[in-house]
Amino acid sequence: MAESTEPRLPPGQHLVAADKWPTIGEKLPLESDRPWTLTLGGLVEQELSFSLDELQNLPMTEMTLDIHCVTRWSKYDVTFRGVLLSDLFEKAGVKNDAQFVSFVARSARNHSSSLRVVDAMELQVLIALESNGQPLPIEKGGPIRSIVPRRYFYKSVKWVERIELLDTDRLGYWEGETGYHNEADPWQEQRFISQSVDKKRAKQLIESRDFSNQDLLSIELANHELSNLKAQGALLRNANFSGCTLVDADFSSANLSNANFKDADLTNANFSGADLEGADLAGSNLTAANFSGCSLFGSTFCRESSDLDPQISEGAIFSAETVLDEKTYEVLTPTQFNFVQTQLAKFR
Ligand SMILES: Nc1nc2c(c(=O)[nH]1)N[C@H]1C(S)=C(S)[C@@H](COP(=O)(O)O)O[C@H]1N2
Ligand SMILES: [Mo]
């Protein structure tokens, strides 16, 4: 959707009174005598640390934006002033393989949240030191807070002291442990891992790892640790499990049509009798995975880069213990069929 046609207030939100700004989540940083610094590390050319003074002397940008909290309150026109993340990136030099940026707080639970680097740049993330003309109060994340415009406010981390560039995503506290959506676009209402669950249910699903017989269409779980997941008979069409660890997961008789398992670790996972039509298993680890009696029409196990000159990449990994008989995979397209056939033949 074009930005100009989006209503100012995202769906399901209401405005708080003009003089109100609720404090949500952690109320204070971890107590410490260390002076505040901000470190840029991970996949950078040069790790950099800035004292608060040094940050204050960098070129400042001011932006006025609307806050949208996932708990359904919004607040218009809050002014933040600080250093653009892109300016810090330029100073440190971001390496080519840096795909994600994680903001880590000085807090008791090592609170963090992450973004794709491309999104962080497009959204113009600010490292804020002031709000509404004053130094950022400590309960609002002062002295250093990340501000991510146009995302639910849980993406904006209070008391940031480390910014880390990563090649694979590291889910933040709310996203990894309590079932908040990793994209967090308020205009798409990406509040929780699934549109059809509320906050309590989302947390419960993540903690219990029990999805059996649940309807969780399009559930968004990329990069989650979900070993031993119980998902027998679950309705998981269009689910996103890319990059997940799903060792010993039980998906028997589940509906997984069009599900995304790209790069997932499916060691010893049980898919017997599951519907995997159109599912993407490229790059996944299928060591000892069981596909007996699955439907695999339109599934992919590797990338095909061109029809003229089929180049196989991101092939799934098989082992001698992978259970997959020809009756089950003969419905695949010729390239996929040949790929699977070749891999399994190595163990015969
Ligand atoms: N360090 C830290 N940052 C955090 C949180 C937190 O618990 N700890 N909660 C997030 C959530 S869920 C929201 S809605 C906003 C709330 O910011 P506020 O308290 O300034 O309104 O901070 C985000 N950043
Ligand atoms: Mo929140």
Strand and helix map with partners:
Layout: E1 14-15, E2 37-42, E3 48-51, H1 52-56, E4 61-68, E5 73-84, H2 85-92, E6 100-105, E7 112-116, H3 117-122, E8 126-131, E9 134-135, E10 145-147, E11 160-166, H4 173-177, H5 199-208, E12 303-304, E13 312-313, H6 326-329, H7 334-345
Parallel strand pairs: 1-5, 2-11
Antiparallel strand pairs: 2-3, 4-5, 5-8, 6-7, 6-11, 8-9, 8-10, 12-13
The structure holds the ligand Nc1nc2c(c(=O)[nH]1)N[C@H]1C(S)=C(S)[C@@H](COP(=O)(O)O)O[C@H]1N2 and molybdenum atom.
The ligand Nc1nc2c(c(=O)[nH]1)N[C@H]1C(S)=C(S)[C@@H](COP(=O)(O)O)O[C@H]1N2 binds at residues 21-26, 69, 105, 107, 111, 140-141, 153-154, 156-159, 174.
The main pleated sheet reads as: 6 strands, mixed
Unreliable spans: none
Overall mean pLDDT score? 95
Structural class of the helices, strands and pairings? alpha+beta
List keywords for this structure.
348 residues; alpha+beta; six-stranded mixed β-sheet; five-stranded mixed β-sheet; 7 helices; 19% strand; elongated; binds the ligand Nc1nc2c(c(=O)[nH]1)N[C@H]1C(S)=C(S)[C@@H](COP(=O)(O)O)O[C@H]1N2; binds molybdenum atom
Tell me briefly what this model is:
With 348 residues, the chain is an alpha+beta fold. The chain contains 7 helices and 13 strands. The protein starts with 13 loop residues before the first strand and ends with a helix.
